[in-house]
Amino acid sequence: MARDVLLGLEGISKTYPGVKANDGVSFSIGAGEVHALLGENGAGKSTLVKMIYGLVKPDEGRMTLRGQPYAPPEPRAARAAGVAMVFQHFSLFDALNVAENVALGMDNPPPMRALEGRIREVSEGYGLPLDPARLVGDLSAGERQRVEIIRCLLQDPKLLIMDEPTSVLTPQEVDILFGTLRQLAAEGTSILYISHKLEEIKALCDEATILRRGKVVGTCTPREKSAREMAEMMVGATLNVPKRAGKEPGPVALKVQELSVASPSAFGTSLKGVNFEVRQGEVLGIGGVAGNGQDELLLALSGELRTPRDTVQIHGRGIGDSGPNDRRRDGICAAPEERLGHAAAPDMSLTENALLSGAVRRGLTKRGFIDWARTRDFAEDVVRTFDVRTPGIGTAARALSGGNLQKFVLGREIMQEPEVIVVNQPTWGVDAAAAAFIRQALLNRAEAGAAVVVISQDIDEIMEIADRFAALNEGRLSEPVPTQGLTIDQIGLMLGGAHGMHQAEVSHVHA
Amino acid sequence: MDFYGINPAVLIASLMVASVPIMLAAIGELVVEKAGVLNLGVEGMMIMGAVCGFITAVHTGSPWAGFLGGAAGAMAISLIFALLTQVFLANQVATGLAMTLFGLGLSSLMGQGYNGIKPPAMADVPLGPLEDIPFIGRAFLSHDAMVYVSILIVAGVWAVLKYSRVGLILRAVGENHDAAHALGYKVRRIRVLAILFGAAMAGLGGAYVSLVRVPQWTDGITAGAGWIALAIVVFASWKPWRVLIGAYLFGGITVLQLNLQAAGARIPVEYLSMSPYLITILVLVIMSSGKGRAGLNAPAALGQNFHASR
User: Fold this and answer.
1) Is A507 a residue whose pLDDT tops 60?
2) Over 50: is that where the pLDDT of B117 sits?
3) What are the pLDDT digits (tens) for B131-164?
4) Mean pLDDT of A424-439
5) From A415's CA, which of A96, A238, B80, B125 has a CA 20 to 30 Å away?
6) Quick one: three-class SS letters along A19-63?
7) Are A273 and A259 in contact (CB under 8 A)?
8) Which residues contact A404 (CB under 8 A, 6 or more apart)?
9) Nearest-CA distance from A293 to chain B in Å?
10) Residue A290 has pLDDT above 80, yes or no
11) Closest Cβ–Cβ partner in A47, A54, A104 for B172
12) Which residues cross the membrane (chain B) (predicted)?
C-alpha cells in the first residue's frame, strides 16, 4: 500500500466471559483518512475503539502508531500519543461549565482564563461556536457534542475517534459537523468514524471496515458501494423493509389539546401548549433532538404526569387526570425510552415485569391475588412472538441485552392490544433485523385499528413507518404534516434547524 | 449590656467554640459528598475521634497529639466504610448507619477506665493586646488554636474545590463517575481519599469535643453532633462558606438554649434541649421540599456505587 499508515491493528482479540468481543481484527488507517468502522450493535466496535483509546487492554494482537508499537495502558497515554475520542455518551458533566468540562479532558490544561480564550478561538475556527462559561446541563445535544469535539481538538490529535456522533443531531447539525471533520481531514488528522448510518458513511468516509460478531467481514470504499450492499455485509443477511397497509384512518382515537406540563427533572424541558390528534389506524411520528420534551410527553400520555382532565382525551373522553393503570384500562399503553428502571424493573423476572404492566388489560390478578399461571403464559407469549433471546421467563430483566429487553418491553405493550400505543425511541440500541421487526409490529397494531404515537430521534425510522410527522422543539409541538413528500431539509428546519447556532452568533455579537 | 442575664460577647465566644466540632465534621462530609459518596457514619467517626483523641492526649500529655490521634482513629474506622462501599460495593446508606452504631459501641469499650480523668488543657492563642479590645477581643480573639484552624480549613476547602485541578476532578467524580472513568480518572481511588479526608475532619471534630469543649470522656459524648453535621451539608447546599454559616447557626442555637436554661427561662428544659435537633429537621424539610436550589447543587452521583464495567 502506498498510503502513509498512521494506525495499524494486527490480530486484535478480546474475550469477555461468555463473549468473544473481538476476534483477530486487523486493519489500518492512513494519515488524513476518514475511516469508517461499521457494524451492528454488539459487533465489537466499541470494544475495539476502547482498546485503541487505552480503556481496555487486548488479549492478543498488536497495534502500531506511525510504525512504532502502540499499547496505551490508560487513556492518558493514548492522549499523549495523539489519539483523542469523542464519546457517544457518558463523558460530560452537567453541573460544570464548558471550560471546566474541557479542562477535565486535558492532561495539562492552561489556566482557566487562557483556556476560555482558546475555546472561543478554536470553536469559531472550526465553525462550532461555544460560550465557555455556560453550564453544560443547559446545552442542546449538538452543543454538548461540540464541547467534546473542542476538548479533543485543543490537544492537536493525530487520530480522532468518533463513536456514533450523529445519533443526537439534527440534519443541519450533521452538515456542520461533517464540514468540520472534512476540514480536519484536510489538515492531516485521521478520523475513525463509528456508525451504522450508511448514508452518512457514504457521504463522509474514504475507507470502511465492516465488523460482524467481532470479526472483520469485509472492507470497502463506501463511495463505490450502495447503502444496501453495505447493510447486507453488516447484517450478513438480506433485510426486510416494513410494509404499510395503506388503509384509510378511522375516527380520532387520541386527542391532546393545550397540554402544558412542567418537567419533573431539573434539566428537563417543560411542555408548552401541545396539540395533536391521532386517528385509528394512523401512525404519528414525533421527531426532535433529545431533551426537547420527549420524555415529558411520554409521561403525560402514559399517566405518570397528571394534567387537567380534558388535555388528554381518548375517544373524546377526558383522562388527563387519571393514572397509568386507569389509562391502561381505557386503552392507552406506553413504552418509555429508558428500559432498565423505567420500562422494566431490573431485578425482577420477565414474568414479574410482564405482570407489572399487563395486569389490568390481560386480567392477570383475581381479587387482589396474582394469577401466576396466566401471567407466565402471557410472558411466554411475548417472548415467543417477539423472539426475545432469554434463557427463560424467570430471568431477571437486568440480565437481558438492551436489544432483547427492548423487544420484550415493546412486545409486552403491543400484545396488550391497546387502542392507543405510545412509544419513545422504540428501536434505540436494537440491531437492524430486530428494529425492522419492531417497526412491523407497530404497523400491524395500527392496521388492527390502534392509534400509534412513535416518538423517535431517528428520522429514517419516522419516515419509514409514520403517516404524519410533527417536531418537538423546546417543549412545543409543530403542526403535524403528512410524511409523504417530506424532504430531509424540511424536517431539519422543523426540528429547529442548526440548534444553538443562532444563540451563539448573538452572544458573539455582544462579546 | 446583658440581655436576660446573657452577655452577647460571651455568647458569641461560646458559639464559636460550640460550632467547631460540627463545622469540622460538616466540611469533611462536604468533600466526601462532593466526590459522590454519602457517608452516614459521621457520628461514628466523630465519637471514634473523641475517644482516640482523648486516650492519646491523656497518655502523651499533649492536646495536639490528641487531635492527631483522633483523626487517625476516625480514619481507621472509615477504612472499613471505604472497603465495604468502594471495593465490595455495599449500600452506602446501610454501611454508614452500621459504622455509626459500630463506632458508638467501640468507643464505649475503648473508653472504659477513662471516665473522670481530665485531659491536658489546650491553651488559648496568645494575641496579646488584641485580646483586650472591648467586646471583639472577648468574643472573637480569645480562643484556642482549633477555632481558627477550623475556619482556615473551610477556606482551604473552598479554594481547592473552586480553583484547583484536584477540586475540579473531585467534583467531576461526584457529578458523573462514568464520564470521569471514561476520561481516565481513578474514581475509586479519589473516593477513598475523599472518605479518608472526611474521616480525619470528623475525627478532629470529635477530639475537640472530648478535649476542649466538654472536656472529659463519657459514653456517647458527641450526642448527635455528627447528624447535625450531615444536616448542615444539605443546609449549605454543598457550599463551603455556607457550612461555616450553618455551623454557627446550629452552634448558636445550642449555646443559646444552654444560656437560656442557665438564665432560668420559663420554657421547660426539654424543649430547649431538643431545639437544635428540631431545627435540624425543620431545615432539612425546607431545603428538600420541592425542586429548590439545594436539589440542583447536590452532586448528581451522590450515594451511587461505581462499578467499572466494560
Assistant:
1) no
2) yes
3) 888 888 888 888 889 999 999 999 999 999 999 9
4) 81
5) A238
6) EEEEEEEEEEEECCCEEEEECCCCCCHHHHHHHHCCCCCCCEEEE
7) yes
8) A388, A389, A390
9) 18
10) no
11) A104
12) 6-25, 37-58, 64-84, 96-115, 135-161, 192-211, 217-236, 243-263, 269-287
CB contact under 8 A, B179 and A55: no
pLDDT digits (tens, 9 = 90+) for A48-107: 888 999 888 899 999 999 888 999 988 888 988 999 988 766 588 988 999 999 999 887
Using a CB-CB cut-off of 8 Å, the residues of chain B touching A16 are 310
Torsion angle of the four alpha carbons B150, B153, B155, B157, in this order, in degrees rounded to the nearest 10: -140
Q: Which residues contact A342 (CB under 8 A, 6 or more apart)?
A: A336
Closest Cα partner for A176 from A189, A191, A165? A165
pLDDT grade for A35, boundaries at 50, 70 and 90: very high
Which phi and psi (to 5°) does residue B143 adopt? -125, 170
Query: What's the gap in Å between the CA of B310 and the closest CA on chain A?
Result: 8
Residue B22 phi, psi (nearest 5): -70, -30
CB-based burial of residue A211 (10 Å sphere; 0-12 exposed, 13-18 middle, 19+ buried)? Answer: buried
Q: A190: which strand partners?
A: A159
Dig out the grid coordinates for A141 from the structure: 445535544
Q: 3-state SS string over B271-297?
A: HHHHHHHHHHHHHHHHHHCCCCHHHHH
Taking the CA atoms of residue A71, residue A75, residue A79 and residue A81 in that order, the dihedral angle to the nearest 10 degrees is -10
Pairing of strands A283-287, A468-473: parallel
CATH 1.10.10 fits B8-297, yes or no: no
Bridge-based pairing state of the strands A215-220 and A252-261: unpaired
Domains in chain A and their CATH numbers? Answer: 5-235 (3.40.50.300), 252-494 (3.40.50.300)
Give the full edge-to-edge strand order of the sheet including A271-279.
A271-279, A252-261, A312-314, A317-318
What 3-state DSSP class applies to B37?
coil
Domain boundaries, chain B: 8-297
A448 φ, ψ (degrees, to nearest 5): -75, 5
Nearest to B77 by CA among B57, B54, B104, B58: B104
Q: Which amino acid is it at A276? A: F
CA B106 to chain centre: 19
CB-CB under 8 Å, B184 with A75: yes
Residue position matching grid coordinates 431545603: B287
Please write the tens of the pLDDT for every residue from B79-95: 999 999 999 999 999 99
DSSP 8-state secondary structure symbol assigned to residue B85: I
| Identity of residue A475 | G
Contacts of A262 (CB under 8 A, 6+ apart): A270
Half-sphere exposure (Cβ direction) of B66: Cα atoms closer than 13 Å: 29
User: For the residues of A382-425, what is the DSSP string, one character each?
Assistant: HHHHTT---S-TTSBGGGS-HHHHHHHHHHHHHTT--SEEEEES
B35 in contact with chain A, both atoms CB, cutoff 8 A: no
Which ranges of B186-267 does DSSP label H, i.e. alpha helix?
A: 187-208, 225-235, 240-262
Which three three-digit cell numbers place residue A181? 471533520
Residues A291 and A265: beta-carbon distance below 8 Å? no
Residue of chain B nearest A48, judged by CA positions: B310
Would you call A191 helix, strand, or coil by DSSP? Answer: strand
